[in-house]
Amino acid sequence: MIPKDSKLKFTKSHEWIRLEDDGRATVGISEFAVGQLGDIVFLELPAAGTHVRAKGSFGTVESVKAAVDLYAPVDGDVTAANDDITTNFDLLSEDPYGKAWLVQLQVSDPAQLEGLLSAEEYEAHLQSPDSHS
Questions:
Q1: What is the C-alpha to C-alpha distance for residues 109 and 97, in angstroms, rounded to an integer?
Q2: Is the residue at 93 inside a domain?
Q3: With bands split at pLDDT 50, 70 and 90, how would you rate the model's confidence at 5?
Q4: Domain at 49, CATH number
Q5: What pLDDT is stored for residue 3 in this prediction?
Q6: Domain residues for 82?
Q7: What radius of gyration, in Å, describes the C-alpha atoms of the chain?
């Protein structure tokens, strides 16, 4: 369930982003995506200092069902990757919008956040036939 009071924005490819008070942004994958993947067996995240581009791949998540790329919601520089998540995949299903964050970014262009889906728009997207893409 998406926290209703959240500042989360979403992509159609099921990544979420939250702009933090210090100007950085935290990125993760949605509870829906975690559920679709099933048992996760591998997660690859970029190192701090890596530049990512909106809609560009920044990592990979593999499960017993599939291997999928993770896509950056916005342009930015990775300031931290969540090492805890690479060794404790259960966090993804236990706390997808909290402890299971993937990377933190210094956002290059905050205006890019405006093009992302609100929580309500994302929930509506999940009801559409193209939500699995």
A1: 23
A2: yes
A3: low
A4: 2.40.50.100
A5: 74
A6: 8-109
A7: 14
Is 127 a member of any domain?
no
* Count of domains forming the chain: 1
Report d(CA 123, CA 10) in Å as an integer: 10
Question: What tokens were used for 111?
Answer: 């205006």
Q: CA 74, 61, 86 angle in degrees (round to 5)?
A: 95
Could you tell me if residue 57 is inside a domain? Answer: yes
Question: What's the angle, vertex CA 113, arms to CA 109 and CA 118, rounded to 5?
Answer: 175
Tell me the CA end-to-end span of the chain in Å, nearest whole number.
20
Tell me: the pLDDT tens digits for 7-47?
899 999 999 999 998 889 999 999 999 999 999 999 999 99
Task: Look at residue 124 in the predicted model and tell me its pLDDT.
Answer: 92
Taking only the tens place, the pLDDT of each residue in 58-89 is 999 999 989 999 999 999 999 999 999 988 99
